[in-house]
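Risk register update: the risk of archive-format incompatibility is retired. Evidence:
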Amino acid sequence: MGAKTGFLVYADGDVPRLLREVGAADLEQTDNMMRRLYPGWEIEESEVSKLSGGVYPPEGTAYAASWPGLEFIGDQRVMIDAPSELPEHLVAASAGRRLVLHAMHSVVDWLAFAVWEDGRLVRSVSLSPDSGIIENIGEPLPFELPYWSGDRPADVIPWPDEDEEPYPLPFHPLELGEDALRALCGFVLEGHLESDDIDADNIHLHGFRVRDPHGLDPAEQQAAMEAMSPPRFFTVSPDGSLIERDGL
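Archived output:
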């Protein structure tokens, strides 16, 4: 499994039902939504994306769409270990609506998802095999129950020459992540497609370059790292002094 996500959805009701009914998202309305949710940030129109790719934009980019009753924002910045700590203004924007956060990263088998109703957090989960259960707030939602009850154990094959140790979680986070996508948003990225799944390739999002005026953008961060002096390595001589050496 190789899926990655980082997005928010605001909805006036059931997300899958509303997402099935969307057409082309109005650019001006979407731009206005972006400026409302990123107050004071520098926002510039960029290339468009399909929903299937827009769930995990490149750093410094957000993919978004504003439809009647439904708003979507894909941005790596919402990939936080504890969804309950989502910035307050993003939660406040869900007053009178449902807010869904979904984030997962296949490299580390990390999953986080959360649901707010009218600004109140009703469910939050975050876990990975390295960190264990980071957050588990509220009652499990129906699609989660087979996982927590042990009916969906992780089937992980160890790498060659690795000791075969039990997977440190009772289930695989990415498998739960796909079921969370389907239950909460109506589509999946990987795995078996069901007849009523939304085709995420048929929904288009507007793209925006988004920059925090108080921070470096990704290009500036990369340039700053490249400008740093190379690391220096030392070893201890017999008399206790440090001697610089080349490389590791």
